[in-house]
Amino acid sequence: MSAPDASLRIGPRRPQARMVCVFVHGRGQSPEEMETGVLSRLDAPDVAFLLPRAPKGAWYEARAVDPLTSATRSALDEAIDQLAAAMDEARAAFPGVPVLLGGFSQGACLSIEYVCRGLSTPDALIAFTGCRVGTPQDDRPDDLPKGLPVYLSGGDADPWIPVTAFADAALSLGRSGVRLRADLFPGRGHEVCDAEIAMMASVLTDLSSGRAVGFGAPR
Predict the structure, then answer these.
(1) Using one digit for the tens of pLDDT, what is the confidence trace for 62-89?
(2) What is the pTM for the complete model shown?
(3) Largest alpha-carbon pair distance within the chain?
(4) 56-59 own/partner pairs: CB under 8 Å, 24+ apart
């Protein structure tokens, strides 16, 4: 069993792993819940997974759509530092293989903010039910690498990430020059649907096979 503040590691070790995925849980969740609710639905025997754990069950206290305060910025800085350490750990443990960064809900928001700071760029980003942290009026970093494959998803019945926040994220990411696919699912609540799992599976397959990410799964 993992210690309360320890990351969860799943899957093969070197040299069997053909790629590694760092996947970030949401508010009030755990790496174990991401393993059960998301990763167990994938057929990815050659992918190693590293799931960091928020020390207090949340990466920051505010809602993602709230205006940024000094307290939220400070908490976000600490969370991004922890995610950066997880990314460094993944690259050190599995040198030379592709790295996918993904997350759900608050973990997706954190992952978006991580890449917006231009840190240790992953080979692709998957943000299930994610958005930018803060509002368009806030001073937010926007240093994404051009051409980065990004999959952004949301649901119009999601009570945590409204459609306006999804649209703001799509606009922010799209303007930065990433290669974006954004799917908004009608009637989908705060969950990861089968179509999103299929998209993640296709991204994993492309990366582990050395192909460009094609976002080949249907909506």
Answers:
(1) 988 899 999 999 999 999 999 999 999 9
(2) 0.95
(3) 47
(4) 57/27, 57/28, 57/29, 57/30, 58/27, 58/28, 58/106, 59/24, 59/27, 59/106, 59/107, 59/110
